[in-house]
Amino acid sequence: MLREGFDVNNICVIVPLRSSQSGILLEQTIGRGLRLMWREPEYQEAKEENRKRVLQERIRPKNEIEVLNIIEHPRFLEFYDELIADGLAVVEGGEDDGETSGVGDFINVELRDGYEKYDFQFPVILRESEKIIEPKDFDVNKLQQFPMSFEEIKKILPKGERFVSQEVTSGTRYGDFDVHSGVMSATSYNDYVSRLVRRVMTLVSEKSEDTIKARRNASEVQFPLLQLYTPQIAGLVDAYLKKRLFGQEIDPHQDDNWRVFMMKDVAEAVVKNITTYIIKIQEETEVNEYEMMYRNLSEVTTLRMREGSSLETHKTIYERTSFPARSGNLEKSFIEYANTDGEVDAFAKIVEYKHTFIRFKYIREDGMLAHYHPDFLVRIGSKIYIVETKSEKDTSHPNVKRKKKSVLNWVEKINKLPEEHRQGFTWSYVLLGEDVFYDFKNKGATMKQLLDYATMRYDSGASIQGKLL
Fold first, then answer.
1. What's the DSSP call for residue 36?
2. Among residues 31, 36, 32, 30, which one has the least CA distance to residue 50?
3. Which one of 9, 77, 317, 405 is separated from 224 by 20 to 30 angstroms, measured CA to CA?
4. DSSP SS3 for 265
5. What distances in angstroms separate CA 437 from CA 13, 390, 405, 408, one per listed residue?
6. Considering the chain, what percentage of its residues have pLDDT values greater than 70?
7. Which residues in 90-147 belong to E strands, given as ranges?
8. Which residues pair with 430 in a beta bridge?
9. CA–CA distances in Å: residue 111 to residues 123, 203, 302, 304, 395
10. Looking at residue 168, what is its pLDDT?
């Protein structure tokens, strides 16, 4: 099966039972047995340790994760010697010293009894509260009528086939509205309606932009622009001219009646009344409430971790909490500190490949979209701290600053929610440098004093830094 390309990824031992003169056949057989078996992220550190022991220290790995054992065959000695010389294999002999385990010191850690007391509920905003405009049908009867009758206007209408009102084309201003753009140079009723529609839509757009700017300056909620289709406006204009403007039905195609609408005062009234009506509809908004989803850390019922790189903890939903095997002293110290502090109600280490819902989008320095997973959550009283632990040299890295900005934006949105949407908690973000941590710890500060000191502020993005007296 190995030679025919059957994709087996759980081969741990290969026993060659026949000789072969083909080096390619040997490489193919062994290569088929080297398909990755332990692919989960939690095994990465152990695999790196194995590589270091085999390739650099030339000693046997402490576990069998991603290790292929090949039983020696006399005809393959030369091939094995080449592998050994290249550092890709080690020679084993004699009794097992008992230090090697198939899976090393990996253990499964379950939720503890009574974990609910230490659980965290992470709020996810699916949709923010906003003012919206529901699609509405236009009601032509709400438009104002012209103060003169159709017959009165028609009596003063000049006769002749070449009638054009040049007064309106020159432009007339009243209030917030202009009538210009050659409305009165129309050559037919349909052309006239088309020109009116374009003018109305332009005025609505300009008025909406002015409203948005004013609201932004006043720090008010912005109204969305009304999305209108040309046929909707055209239908409103047509119905207004034929049925509502003069309080009677008018056939614009009979006896050149449409030319009445080209009179200066009539055209101004049509544009003003329709534009005012549309803008009024735009301001009749409805408020959508926040749409939220809540994710619990306890949704992940089991974590796989290395016993030697974890600590038994009492204020967490799991019985143990892991930390990086390499360069993990800061996280380990933080876990010990939080676990023994009397003011801490609960804390949790965020495992990014398990607690995937606790993440924040940000744009990396290279312009690519990425996701950021912080290190810890800590709950003290009515406050929840999102904590990132960093060495001092890393706190000023450009990507760290970008992550910080992303989380602070989220924190600001969450804290503006009504209390029922955030379970009464206030959220904060803490970028905790190594020097600050050990300074506070060595001087006997509480976890709350430390976290409040290092809390990042949204307005400046700088932490409240100082010295503990």
1. -
2. 36
3. 405
4. helix
5. 48, 10, 21, 21
6. 75
7. 106-110, 121-127, 130-132
8. 387, 455
9. 21, 62, 7, 12, 33
10. 39
| CATH class of this structure's domain 107-127+296-454 | alpha beta
**Which among 43, 2, 256 has a CA at the least distance from the CA of 150?**
256
Helix axes 230-239, 189-217, angle to 10 degrees: 120
pLDDT (0 to 100) of residue 46 = 79
Is 319:109 a contact under the CB 8 Å cutoff? yes
The pairs formed by 354-357 with CB atoms below 8 angstroms and a separation of 24 or more are 354/300, 354/303, 355/297, 355/300, 357/122, 357/124, 357/295
pLDDT tens digits, one per residue of 405-430: 999 999 998 998 888 888 899 999 99
Residues making up the chain, counted from first to last: 469
Q: Which 8-state DSSP code applies to residue 372?
A: E
Are 252 and 258 spatial neighbours (Cβ–Cβ below 8 Å)? yes
CA nearest to 221, candidates 316, 298, 287, 318? 287
User: Which one-letter DSSP state was computed for residue 146?
Assistant: P
Judge contact between 315 and 118, C-beta under 8 A.
yes
* Mean pLDDT computed over every residue of the chain: 78
Segment of 84-98, 259-273, 386-400 carrying the highest mean pLDDT: 386-400
Task: Give the per-residue pLDDT at 431.
Answer: 94
Going by the DSSP 8-state scheme, the letter that residue 187 receives in this structure is S
Amino acid (1-letter code) at residue 101: S
Domain ranges across the chain: 13-104, 107-127+296-454, 130-288
- 121, 423 Cβ separation under 8 angstroms: yes
CB 387 within 8 A of CB 452: no
Confidence check: pLDDT of 368 > 50: yes
Q: Tell me: pLDDT of 31 over 90.
A: no
Least confident of 63-72, 132-141, 193-202: 132-141
CA atoms within 13 A on the CB side of 288: 14
pLDDT at 263 over 80: yes
> What is the identity of the amino acid at 48?
E
**What is the enclosing helix (H) or strand (E) of 212?**
helix 189-217
Sign of CA dihedral 49, 54, 57, 60: positive
**Cβ neighbours for 176, distance < 8 A, ≥ 6 positions apart:** 207
Residue 129 has pLDDT above 70, yes or no: no
Q: How far apart are CA 133 and CA 89, in angstroms?
A: 69
Phi/psi at 124 (5° precision): -120, 120
Task: Indicate the pairing of strand 426-433 with strand 383-390.
Answer: parallel
Distance (Å) of CA 467 to CA 150, 443, 446, 457, 460 = 84, 11, 14, 18, 20
Show Cβ contacts of residue 34 under 8 Å, excluding neighbours closer than 6 positions: 11, 68
